[in-house]
Structure formats: C-alpha cells, structure tokens
Amino acid sequence: MSKKEAWALRSLGRTGVQVSPIGLGTMMFGGKTDEAESARIIDLALARGVDLVDTADAYGGNETERIVGRALARDGRRKRTILATKLFFPQGPGDDPNARGLSRRHVIQACEASLERLQTDWIDLYQLHRSSADVPIDETLRALDDLIRAGKVRYVGGSMFPSWRIVESLWVAKELGLNRFVSEQPAFNLLDRTAEREVIPAAQSFGLAVLAWGPLCGGLLTGKYDRDHGDAAGRWQDGRDAFGRQVTPAAWEAIDLLREMAKEKSCSVSQLALAWCMAQPGITAAIIGPRTFAQAEDNLGALDVALDAQDFARIDARFPKRSVAVRYYDTAIGVDFRPSRHRSVV
C-alpha cells in the first residue's frame, strides 16, 4: 500500500460517509491522560486529517466523553468530525440492573446522557459496546431506530459482536424495516487475527465498515518490550498484562520480525504494525489509543509508511492469516458468546 493509498478516505460501510484510515480512540483521556494533554492530542489528530473520533460512556467514568465534547466544541470542529461513542457497560449505581446493557430503557437513557456530555445534538455513529444474550435484539434495534428517526443518532454499529450476531442483527433489521448496523468494531492486530476467521468476512459480505481496536495489542506491538523484562510504565509485565494475556514465543518472533522490518523502513515498530493493520482486506480504520502526545505523533506517522506485496508476504510467512499468538480478541472484557435467551421475533 502506497502513502497515497494510506491517506485516502474510506467509506463507512455502505454509507456515503467518508472516514480517515486512522481513528482516534480516547480511552486514556480523563484517566492516565489529563484534559490538557487530551485536547492537544485531539488537536493534533484533526490537524493531520483524522476525522473519526471514537469514545464510549464507559471510559473514564463518563469523564472521557466530557473531555471530548469540550475539545470538539471549539472552533466549529464538531461539524467536521465523525463522532462515535458506545453504550453497554454499567452506568450510575452499581446495584441498578437497569443502568447497563441493551434494554430499550438503557439505550435511550445512555444516548441522552452521552449527548449532554459530548455537547452535541447528534452522534454520528452509536455503537453497542458488546452484544448481549439477555436482551432480544429486536428490542435494542427498535430503540436505536427511534433514536435515528429522532435525529439524535445518524448511524449504528456493534463492537465485539460474534459473526452470527452480526447476521442476526441484519436479518432482524431487514424483517422489521429498521435501520441496520453499518459497522463492527472488533479487536484486531498482527498478533491476534481471530477476526479474519468469520467477523471480517461477514462484514465484507454485508457491507459493514470494520473499525479495528487494539491494533497495537495493548502496546505490545510498540516494540518497547522484550523477552527478558517489561517496561515499568507499560501494561505488559513478565510477559503478561493485567487481564492475564500471555505473550507466546510466536508473538516474540513476530515482534522480532517487525523490529527488523521497521529498521529497514526507518519507521517505528508501532507505525509498521498500524500500517499493516490499515492495509488488511476489509479494514476501514485502525483505532489508535495514545496516552501521550508523543505516542499520538508516532502513531499518526503510520500513514507515511508504505508497504508492498513482499512486505505482506514476509509477515504472513511468519504469522499466517487467522492465526493467534496472543489471545486478545477472546479475552476482551464483556464478550458474550452465549446463544440468545430469547427466540427471535421474526
């Protein structure tokens, strides 16, 4: 993929909306990244041509959405930004069973709260942060459809939906005449290509955008870790992260190859890993999640890294399609692979 191809805008699924091949993820904002640094990162991303900003009500105890809202309220930039947020995880008191999930009640309440925090009248892409076996999909889709008809949401999508749930949601939407998903946001990176097995092919078949999160495998693909010790400030210590994910020998081999290739191309390991992710078939955008301004600068430099067929073949030979060296996808928080508890309405 040439530099020109890397910088080209891409369609958000079957819609007419155009998005940048890198999306700015904001999970660190309001937590490890203070508001001033967060605003600088947003300014940098927008200045470099990024138009997709991705957040969620679960990030930073709601503070992330407030920070994003204040940053985008300046200089009319909100109108030029494709703003995406998500709902699903608990909101408010932990003992309130209705302040979470995908019920009609929670979908509408969560949307109203996000709109207020984001200081906007509409959400460009409203995503279900996870699927749920506990709520009939038609109840959730009807609520989302009402939000679209009310002008509060423009498009809807999912995140970490198994392929069969993607198909179920599209089928129910078609049968009931409701607005359908336009996107799916799976975990996807060079060390965990699980999404290539079914999710990405399903998205390609039905015209959904794929917004890959975790393209640097939680920082493992930055090249700052090695076999002998971790980074004191990093997520991975002694070959494990806080979620118990384990780095395998195959992962270290892949990282060694990326270090070698990055040196040849005079770029960072993270830039190479991001350039690879953006160039994979079916991928619309890679969602970066920088903690610092310096990380954001580095990540955005991936748009200047050119890869050719020989580069892809070299990586695939060491780490083939659909393979897994670190179980990142399956171990994501809140992933629900259970069958639905409710028979479909159609």
Describe the structure.
The protein is α/β, with parallel strands linked by helices and 346 residues long. The protein has one domain (3-318): Alpha-Beta Barrel (TIM Barrel). The protein has helices spanning 3-7, 35-47, 63-72, 104-118, 137-149, 163-176, 199-206, 249-265, 269-278, 293-300, 309-318; strands at 10-11, 18-19, 22-25, 52-54, 82-87, 123-128, 153-159, 181-185, 209-213, 285-288. It has an eight-stranded parallel beta barrel, surrounded by six helices. A two-stranded antiparallel sheet has the order 1-2. β4, α3 (63-72) and β5 (82-87) form a beta-alpha-beta unit. The longest helix has 17 residues, at 249-265.
Write the layout of secondary structure elements.
Blueprint: H1 3-7, E1 10-11, E2 18-19, E3 22-25, H2 35-47, E4 52-54, H3 63-72, E5 82-87, H4 104-118, E6 123-128, H5 137-149, E7 153-159, H6 163-176, E8 181-185, H7 199-206, E9 209-213, H8 249-265, H9 269-278, E10 285-288, H10 293-300, H11 309-318
Parallel strand pairs: 3-4, 3-10, 4-5, 5-6, 6-7, 7-8, 8-9, 9-10
Antiparallel strand pairs: 1-2
Helix pairs in contact: 2-3, 2-10, 3-4, 4-5, 6-7, 8-9
